[in-house]
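thoughts on my protein:
***
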Amino acid sequence: MENEKAIIVGINFTRDWGNSIKELEGLAKADEVEVIALCTQSLERPNTATYIGKGKVIELKEMVSNMGANLVIFNNELSGAQLRNLEERLDVKVIDRTILILDIFARRAKTKNGKLQVELAQQRYRLSRLSGFGNYLSRQGGGIGTRGPGEKKIETDRRHIEKRIDDIKNEIDKAITVRNTQRKLREKANIPVVALIGYTNAGKSALMNAILDDTQKEEKNVFEEDMLFATLDTYQRSILYDKNEFILVDTVGFVSELPHTLIDAFKGTLEEVLYADLLLHVIDISNPESEFQEKVANKVINEIGGGNKETIKVYNKIDLLDECDNLLDKNNNIYISAKKAYNLKAVKKVIIEKLFDNKINTKLLLPYERGDLVSYLCNKYIIDNLEYLDNGTMIIISLEIDDYRRLRKYEIV
């Protein structure tokens, strides 16, 4: 297969334009594309037909010819008509930011559910751009049922895509039903959830693996790699800290201008964030664009409705800095190196404080005639120990404040 050599095209609309271009270069690299040049233009508004101006199209065509590029990547989302017009004028394959991200996701998806979500986003993207290619699509060939005016191929394609979208959504809904059932079981068992969020490649999976190694549980580590979108599927692992159990969730990373088709497709996965009791926002402090990346992640979290969740900032990769004096600042931000397993105690401390400090460890002796209370506690909590004694049921348990006050009369030493 011929190596793809790309020219990136960026239009200066916003103040974060420079960061967005750097991000696009990283995305191209993640998709194994060699970026050989950058073409920029400042515009008040995009050209309806070609997005960039006519003169810039001519300049870009010369760059493609002189530099031997076989791909042009636009940092902005293009319509179907713009993609078609640009390919006609440049005589080379043209894609936009969304197509690039979708291609990366298609490469990275490993589970059936992840692949379905990517395909759903791809099909929705294709459907929204069918009309742009309408003039190119010929009518179907002759035969029974096709005589007369016939039906444009675009209409056949539209129905095929819409049916495939419905089929995918039905499969994804089944997976969501399973996750909802699992979530209800967790809630019944009163097991809290901690979700790792953040910009792609900030080190969320590395932190999850570090926590798994630290707890010495025989849990399967999650895939991690120094590249964008190494994790697409949501991974959940059971963690035990000082007899306190919680579920740790690793989520897909974010980038700026994450396509809405992707946000919609991954809503079922991202819902795990909405049901979490605590968010750990992992930030790559060694990255010069860390502030921009932090803003990007915050924006996505707000877009999916998780902006009101209690969030702790975890600044990762401090081993790549020359110095970092503060390990816990006044805002309770944490500074760690997941790769070096450095300062994980701070992560452990904040999780226990936020999730479990409102519980009281106690030993209860419940009379046998109060079997209703035993059932209540078994349904709501994880029981540390239960024994049937001569005079009642002895339970060692960690209770929420309200339950402790209600049952304190049954407490024994």
